[in-house]
Structure formats: structure tokens, C-alpha cells
Amino acid sequence: MKRLFLSLAAALCLLACGPQEPGRVKVTGGTIQGTVLEDMTVYKGIPFAAPPVGELRWKAPQSVVAWDGVRECTDFAPDPMQGNGEGNSEDCLYLNVWSPATSPKSKLPVMVWIYGGGFAGGGCSSYDGAALARKGVVVVSVNYRVGRLGFLSLPELSAENPHGVSGNYGLLDQIAGLQWVQDNIARFGGDPAKVTIFGESAGGISVSMLCASPLAKGLFRGAISQSGGSFGPTNPWSYPGENMETLAFTQEANAASMKAAFGENYTLEQLRAADAKEFLRGGMSASGGWPIVDGYVIPDDQYKLYEAGQYNDVDVLIGYNSDEGLSFGFARGGGSHEESVRTRYEDWADRLLAAYPLEADGSVGKTARDLTRDAAFGWQTWAWARLQERTGKGRVWLYYFDQHPDYPAGSPRYGQGSPHGQDVAYVFGNPREAQPTDKALSGWMMDYWTNFAKTGDPNGEGLPEWPRFTNAEPRTMVLTGDGCHAAPVPSEAALNVLEGYFAWRRSQE
Question: Active-site residue 420, yes or no?
Fold first, then answer.
């Protein structure tokens, strides 16, 4: 083992492009020092842009500030400002690298992780890329601004912007991180021509948006979206799956919010001088903490962009969990559920109540709460798959994550499936449940995900065959520890009803 460590350490010296310390690499801005392990080198807290503070608050990420000497990159940088602000920092634009490469010439595929958190929270410090890196890929995770510090739009901010827009700073952070990867990842043994982005929830939605953004063109060749997608129309009333608002709407709403909080004659100088925690207060405005259709980062309604073939056409692996509705406050009790459906879906309520019915006793069982699952994730993913298959050349691989015990009748959890976010731990090799089926599924998923990063196809030796999704044969891969297998798309008839609803909603714009 000692001899193995020494040989790897010697090889890792090559990453420094010369006879320097193991794990020492020159990147944009200066030289960094990582942590050398037996089978990889880990770099944490690498700055990829200038701190977005002071005059840079609510501006696109700027060039990294160079440093002298060697910067120790051995600990995670603070996560972005969120919640009550404790333990986080507005100075958050850092990324992390796990590299198993033994030479800059290794040209390993690269996987760039984008975390979830509803665009209001999250951070890189919760994710360890080591298990995936051991599958023969370089793993990168990127911090981005969240909440109003990451997505606030105002007329005054648009007026000072050369593109006449504001908001979407968090997405611009992700794009800046991907540009850093293009410029630097070869020094870590990664191949900038083989970059796959992957993320879950808000991270999966981000992946979807990056696939639609012209600013991200050429920065990746593959995309994995877990419980993501952003194909609903713009809507001033924010519902799961209909979260997108226009620049004009959010500017007006946020201006009113700033006037209420800082005075009728507030100034940008005043807002930028305020404590960052002032913008974490939930009562300030319902807007300002989510990406928007600004005509620049996100040019238009993504459904329309895909219909027109105006997107970054790459191979995609996309899917969602079997019981996402468990996690999103569906109305409990027959009457309240029906009322909430009628409030949101208006003219389409009866058709959707029929497609996603209550239990015989009137209770809100899984079939009823699947309306929430599909409106937020299932339809978004299914629409993505169908549109890309129709208008693009990139291959589409669809999945349905369904790993859970068969809870007995009478149990409080009887009939429950896999809730939102459960899949993430399996992808990173640390499922919370440690039963043999959980370990098996985690291994399969890591293989599928890294195979996709390597070739654009998740299939590989020893794995159950994953069929490609086509509109002629719309198959999905059911991911379960009892044995992954191909199957028809779940609730496809109900998804077609939702397709009609979203088309109707779009016609009301």
C-alpha cells in the first residue's frame, strides 16, 4: 500500500506541470494546493470569480482576483447566503474538484454537479464527489448565488446592465463555473470536450435551463437532470411546474418590495450597502428568488424554444422519483385537495381530478398526489424527452426512480413511493438506507451516470439494458434495487391530460 501511495503521488506531481509538490496546480488566478489521497487528489474552495459583494452585488460574475503564492484549497468555501445567514457567505463563488487522474494527459470525462435547494438554498459542502470520481471521471461542484442575492431583478439593475436585463445571476454563476472548467480542467486530467452537467431539483431545473441558454452553448456535451425540467409557461402565480415569470413582471413586483423595505426613493447604492441578511427576509416579496425569462440568459418560454429547435442539442439522461408529491404540501383531505386543484387548474380541474383520482374513501392517496409530482417534474421531464426526440439529434434516456420498502397495509407509510431528493444519495454512493438492494441500486446508478458521462450512453457491461427513449417507443428505465428494468412511461394517459392543460395555460398568456 505504501508503494502504491508513493507511485500515485509521484504521478500526481505531473498535474502540477513540473517538479513541484504533489497536488499543486496552476489555474486561472494563481497556484493552488489540494489534498493528495491514495487514489485521487481533492481540491476544495477554488475561486472561479471575484467575490460578488459591494459594487458587484447583483452583477454578472467578474474575473477572479489573482493571488500571490500558493493558495491552500483543502476545505469547502462557505455556501451561499441563505436561511438566517449563519455559516454562509455572500462571498461564495468557489468550486471543488475530485480528480483520479495521474497525468494531465489522462483526458478523463468531467461531471459538473449543480445542487438543488429551490434556488433559495443549498451549497457544495453537502456533496462528496469521491465515490463518483473512483468510477473514472473528474467530478466538479460549483457554488452559485441563491435567493434574492442570486435572482433579484429591478428596473434600476436592468438600466445599468449592458444587455438591459437583471436577475438570473445564479445561472450566470453556473455558466462562469463551466467556463472555468473549459479553461482549467485539463490541468486536473479532465477533458474539456467531455463535460457532462448534472443536478437535482433546482439543480436539475438549472441543467434544463442551461440546455436552453445560448450563453452555455459549447460548454458541455451531455446533461443529466434529476427531478428537473422547466417547460411550463410563464405565470404570475407561482405553482410547482409554473414558476417562471417575466422580467417585466418581476421588476415591478420587486421594485414595490424594495420601496416597502428601504423607502420610496431607494437607490442601488443603498441596496448594495445594506447587510446581505436584509435580503433573506421572506416577507419582502414573493418574487426575486427564482430564475426568470429575461430574453438574454433564458430567451423565452423553454417549451417554445424546444419546439423551434433553439437549444443546446446534447445527449440527455432525465427522470424523476415515483412519489415526488409527498414532499410538496399537497392538500390533505378530499375537500381541500379538490379545492386546491380547482384553484390552480381552473377550467381543466375536472379533467385532472378524473386523471388523478382520490381514493375510494375520498383520501388523498398516491394517485391523487401524483398530480403534484407530474405537474412539477413528471410532465416537465416527459415534455422535454418528447420535444427533444422530435426536434433534436441528441439521444434521450428517461428514468423513473422507485426505491422503497413495500409498506404493509395499516402502516402510516402504506402506499408511499420514493420522495423528492431520495435519489441524490444513491448517485453519490452513500444511500441513507444500507440494505443490500440500496447498495446494489447505488452501484448501478453510479455506473449508469458515469457511463453516460463517458460515452453519452448509460449502458455498459453487467448492467440491465436501458433502452433509448423515442416517441415511437416511449420507454423509461425503472431504477429499483429489486432489479432495474425498462417499462412504459408511468401515468402516460394522465400526462397527456396535463399536456392539454399546459397548452391551454400557454394560450392564456
Answer: yes
